[in-house]
Amino acid sequence: MDQPRRDEDQELVARTQSGDASAFDQLVIKYTPRLYGLVYNMTSNHEDTNDLLQDIFAKAYKAIRGFRGKSSFYTWVHSIAVNMTLNFLKKRGRRFQLSLDDVDASIQNDREFMELTATSSPVREADLSELQRRLNEAMMKLSDEHRAVVTMFHIQGMPHAEISKILRVSEGTVRSRLFYANRQLQNYLDEFRKNPVS
Amino acid sequence: MDEFNDNEITRLLRLKRYEQPPPGYFENFLHEFHRRQRDELLRQPLWRICLERARELMFRLDVRSLASYPVAVAAVLVCAAVISLKIYQEPEKAQVALQDAPALSTPANAEGEWTLASPVATRIFRTQPLRSFDQSAQTHRASAPPRYVLDSVPVSYEPTFKF
């Protein structure tokens, strides 16, 4: 975690703790997009994500006075988000509706996207929306804990150490969950390659 | 390439970053957050709102640090007062405790002093008699006729001494 961001967060947290609600607004604005990505990729549902995000920030606001700064605000608020989302998913069970959001148009300019569509035959054969649907289906077949690790590592680009702090597990556990989840995703996507119309 | 490898899966997953909520979502999120906060506040009872406001005010004014010295002095004074009261009331309490335990008996005199002549020992002897008369009269031969000491003395035909 870069130091300026941490210092800035600490100042905003201190101001919030001293009663300045506008400081917390800045934290909300700052972390909403990132937490949206985390929660959305764990729930695959926009409405659920919206409700959960509201609850997450409400809980963070209530609990911020007890935040002593042992970890960064970033880690702290991500811990709240992951735990609340995992609890929500346990209550929801396996019942879910895929509610895919629009893919941002800037994906067309993404270097990795261009490379994938240019070189990889399975990807090239599928159109973008179908690929998106398959990926989400494959993600939802993972267990909640494995999906959380995949989301944080692959999609959000967090390092293993940060994930282990957020989930309060060892780095070895994070790595082994990632390995297992990758194997599972590979199997699901290979099935898609073999039976593209199923 | 026939199969998805790890690298491809990683790349595909990273593309999920481009999945975005509807336009304007992030702009409206904060307004929605404030609206929900207000709604929640209105659902709470009045006393809780007042309590929270008071706590917020105290926290904002940092009353804890300002009042720490006087509060500490007051706490010490209160403790001292409580301890002195306890010490003053202690003999009375001891008397009450003794009344609850009659086996130990009460003090010998009105001043509450303990003396060797106090009836403590007497009471202990009284409350724990060695054996009752009936118990001592019973023997292991309950059905046998009563025996007297004279029975065991051999009969003598010598005249008794007379003075």
Kindly describe this structure.
The complex is a heterodimer of chains A (198) and B (163). Chain A is mainly α and 198 residues long. Chain A folds into two domains: 3-92, Rna Polymerase Sigma Factor, Chain: A (Orthogonal Bundle), CATH 1.10.1740; 108-194, Arc Repressor Mutant, subunit A, CATH 1.10.10. In chain A, 75% of the residues lie in helices and 1% in strands. Chain A has ten helices and one strand, in the order ααααβαααααα. Chain B has 163 residues and is mostly helical. Chain B contains eight helices and one strand, in the order H-E-H-H-H-H-H-H-H. Chain B has helices at 6-14, 25-43, 46-61, 63-66, 68-100, 120-127, 133-137, 149-152; one strand at 19-20. The radius of gyration of chain B is 46 Å and the shape is elongated. Chain B starts with 5 loop residues before the first helix and ends in an 11-residue tail after the last helix. Mean pLDDT of chain B is 68; it is low at 121-125.
CATH homologous superfamily name of the largest domain in chain A? RNA polymerase sigma factor, region 2, helix turn helix motif
Mean pLDDT of chain A: 83
**Main beta sheet of chain B:** none
Q: What integer is the average pLDDT of chain B? A: 68
- Helix-strand sequence of chain A: HHHHEHHHHHH
Order of helices and strands of chain B: HEHHHHHHH
CATH level-1 class of the largest domain in chain A: Mainly Alpha
Radius of gyration of chain A: 18 Å
The backbone outline of chain B, from C-alpha atoms, is elongated
Outline of chain A: elongated
- Major sheet characteristics of chain A: none
Number of helices of chain B: 8
Question: Which descriptors apply to this entry?
Answer:
heterodimer, A: 198 residues, mainly alpha, Rna Polymerase Sigma Factor, Chain: A, Arc Repressor Mutant, subunit A, elongated, B: 163 residues, 8 helices
List the helices and strands and how they pair.
The complex is a heterodimer of chains A (198) and B (163).
Chain A: H1 3-17, H2 21-43, H3 46-63, H4 73-92, E1 102-103, H5 111-119, H6 121-125, H7 128-141, H8 144-155, H9 160-167, H10 171-194
Chain B: H1 6-14, E1 19-20, H2 25-43, H3 46-61, H4 63-66, H5 68-100, H6 120-127, H7 133-137, H8 149-152
